[in-house]
Amino acid sequence: MFNDSEFEGGCEFTSDFCSNIYSRLYLPSSCIIDIGDNFPELVMVQEGVVTVSTRVTKPDTEERQLFEFFILPTFSYFGDYQILYDLKSQNVYKAADEGKLLITLCLKKATLFKMLDDYPEARKFYMERAWQRRIEFRRRQRKFMQNLVTEVVK
Q1: Owning domain of residue 76
Q2: Is residue 3 situated within a structural domain?
């Protein structure tokens, strides 16, 4: 997250960020964030995998079913654009069922906002980066949905 050559938040921001994170552990298959939830914290995957699923209504039965469409591996993060743009989750984020704990590092929403107020250059960077991540995430979700519809039609 901090080895990006475009980032100019500086050592003080990085130090503040690191001194405010805390660890959170999840059992395999535990739900981290459900559809409609607010993100209370920025979540960074320290060890393990997070699955991201969306609910799809099957046209023939009107039954809603979860479809996994994205994997967030170790060293990825989520919750940034949802927090910065005050968006509720449109997906289900779960610890993967790999038989081991998911270890995350978290930063509270309020702390993130305070830090971004204290470091305006970091705010500008993260707002732009979060918006780009949202666009890319939605593009991947749309592509998944198009492929799913194509498979159902076949």
Answers
A1: 10-153
A2: no
